[in-house]
Amino acid sequence: MYVCLCHGFTDGDVRAALDGGCRSVAAVYRTLADRPQCGKCVPDVRGMVNEHRARCGGASASGGCHGLAAPAVAQSEVTA
């Protein structure tokens, strides 16, 4: 499913970025599109980041989670 129509990335692209080491909304955008354009996709990306953190927070380095503890997303990260 397309998450961002402006940049043309999908939920699979976001999941791959998260599995590849992105740990914040801003990091996902830097990896996939530099920054949000219209901003309509930010809540969806934020939800996917939070889902990934809930699933992988404190987990071992398996399943693409890399065992990293997830810091909270600051609002400034979204606009960075």
Write the layout of secondary structure elements.
Layout: E1 2-4, E2 9-10, H1 11-19, H2 25-32, H3 42-56, H4 75-79
Antiparallel strand pairs: 1-2
Helix pairs in contact: 1-2, 1-3
Would you write up a description of this structure?
It is a single chain. Helix 1 packs across helix 3 (42-56). The chain is globular, with a radius of gyration of 12 Å. It contains four helices and two strands; from the N terminus they run E-E-H-H-H-H. The chain has 80 residues and is mainly α. It has a two-stranded antiparallel sheet. Mean pLDDT is 80; it is low at 58-63 and 66-77. Helix content is 46%, strand content 6%.
Instruction: Tally the helices.
Output: 4
> How many runs of DSSP E, i.e. beta strands?
2
Shape: globular
Helix content: 40-55%
Beta-strand content estimate: 5-15%
Overall pLDDT score? 80
Largest sheet: 2 strands, antiparallel
Which strand order does the major sheet show?
1-2
